[in-house]
Structure formats: structure tokens, C-alpha cells
Amino acid sequence: MSTNDPGGPGGGGATPSGPVPSQRRRRKRYFVMMGICLLLFLLAGTVVYRWSFPAAVGMTVVAMAIPPFAAIVANRREPGDRWWDE
Question: Alpha carbon 37 to chain centroid distance?
Fold first, then answer.
């Protein structure tokens, strides 16, 4: 058995029908967080700076802090996950 086989060592990974539900949830959270990050950068650089430069800088700083947290959320183990057991 290969390591990608759901019945093989580790027991995790993708099934023939797609990724496991917890992996889909993590992926969705990651993309939502990164979408918010991108939206903050775009709004700060194109709209907000016209009214308040300090607010635009604050939005940019918040947007810079989101990617590390998104990576942590995407790699967090949920109950029942076995992909860390390898």
C-alpha cells in the first residue's frame, strides 16, 4: 500500500471522492482569510487612503498579519484527523 492510500499508513489523505471534510473546512478557512487579506490591501491602497492615510496604514498592517495566522489555521489538527500520525 502507498502512503496516499486511505487504508494505508496514516489513514488520511484524499479519498476517491475528494479531500476529507476536515481538509475542505481548513482549506475554506484559509482562502477566506487570504481573501480578507487581499481585500484589505486593495481597499487600503485604492479607497481608504483618500480619506485617512493612518487608517490605510492600519489596514495594511492588519492585512500583513493575516497570512501567518491563515497558515496556522490551515495546518491545525482537528479531532479525528490522522494526517499527523505519519
Answer: 11
Taking a C-beta distance cutoff of 8 angstroms, is the pair 37, 70 a contact? yes
Q: In this structure, what C-alpha cell is assigned to residue 58?
A: 492600519
The residues, any chain, with a CB within 8 Å of residue 2's CB and separated by 6 or more, are: 8
Residue 60 near residue 37, CB atoms below 8 Å: no
C-alpha cell, 27: 482549506
Provide the pLDDT for residue 1: 44
Instruction: Tell me phi and psi for residue 35, to 5 degrees.
Output: -65, -40
Please state the φ and ψ torsions of residue 79, each to the nearest 5 degrees.
Answer: -55, 135
Q: Which pTM was predicted?
A: 0.67
For residues 61 and 40, the answer to whether their CB atoms sit within 8 Å is no
Mean pLDDT of 56-61: 96
Q: Is residue 66 within 8 Å of residue 34, measured between CB atoms?
A: yes
